[in-house]
Prior knowledge:
By secondary structure, this protein is of the alpha+beta class. The chain folds into 2 domains: about 5-155, D-amino Acid Aminotransferase, Chain A, domain 1 (2-Layer Sandwich); about 165-325, Alpha-Beta Barrel (D-amino Acid Aminotransferase, Chain A, domain 2). It is about 25% helix and about 30% strand. The chain has 8 helices and 18 strands. Helix 2 (about 75-90) crosses helix 3 (about 95-110) and helix 6 crosses helix 8 (about 315-325). The radius of gyration is 20 Å and the shape is globular. It starts with 19 loop residues before the first strand and ends with a strand. The structure holds pyridoxal-5'-phosphate and 2-OXO-4-methylpentanoic acid (COI).
Amino acid sequence: MKKDIDWSNLTFSYTKTDKRYVCNYKNGAWDEGGLIDDDMIVMSEDAGVLQYAQTVFEGLKAYTTKDGKIVCFRPDLNADRLIDSAKRLEIPPLPKEKFLESIREVVAANADWVPPYGTGASLYLRPYIFGINPVIGVKPADDYQYRVFATPVGPYFKGGAKPIRVKISDFDRAAPRGTGNIKVGLNYAMSLHAIVTAHNEGFAENIYLDPATRTKIEETGGANILFVDTDGNLVVPKSDSILPSITRRSLVYVGEHYLGLKVVEREVLLSEVFEGKFAEGGLCGTAAVISPLGSINDHGKEFTFSNGMEEMGPVLTKLRATLTGIQEGDIEAPEGWIFTIC
Ligand code: PLP
Ligand code: COI
């Protein structure tokens, strides 16, 4: 039986659910793995993750479709990205098949926690791997734990699809040739001071610039950025140090193949925003879906997009509706995008 939850009013926060998946890496191999009840982790005071932040993670969602199925969106791409992230931090990659199996088991075991169709909510899944044995000299751990837990969530930003106000951060997110293109805890630890500062100043998020020249738009702390130019083309910032968002890659495909948009992936200068080249802007990601930009503030100079602070612009509205329609089974998905759990 579905849990008694006010699904439509969920926020993006943690709720403990019934089952989680655990798999351990010891003596050079991943063990069988399986579901457990215990949400607590006991580890050495000197675990690699605690000392040197050796941890990688993913984020994806499970949805209920109109016809009552429970599905996930492109989990194979999360499996691939977790492998890329693990390799960069000297963590033994988790085999793709094991990742997909863990997702299937966690979602099926927590089926009562998957929000019903039409509520706008979803079951967020958080797979992660961390170094668990004692490490005191700076080196990779020998033993690791992989876990996946699930938590029902609503919109990442308060107000759902209402435009947000963001600022240009004075901090950098990712060094050139650093770790900006992988999903690792350290990228988020270093963003915490910046996000608290932004929130205290009344902004919902930070836009980070490229650290080498501080002229190009990279991404926000937890999402990629998209623009629609004044000719109606989708413009996607290109950089080696942003996270290759699965949502963004999917939206590029949807824009081109479902909506007939021209998509341009290129470097985007901050100055172009203030020159008025873009009619719409938005953040995109698993958590953010598409959250429209209302305005961008650069040290007091503020640019407000033509949609204003109340509504999402027309092109991003269509993109969002098409993507969520595909995810929730209202619109036919491209081959291989939907992973049916049960
Ligand atoms: N960029 C950052 C920094 C993120 O944390 C996320 C979230 O996963 C994204 C982009 C969006 O990626 P995806 O669409 O794969 O969730
Ligand atoms: C996601 O979109 O899944 C993320 O991991 C972003 C995070 C900041 C919540």
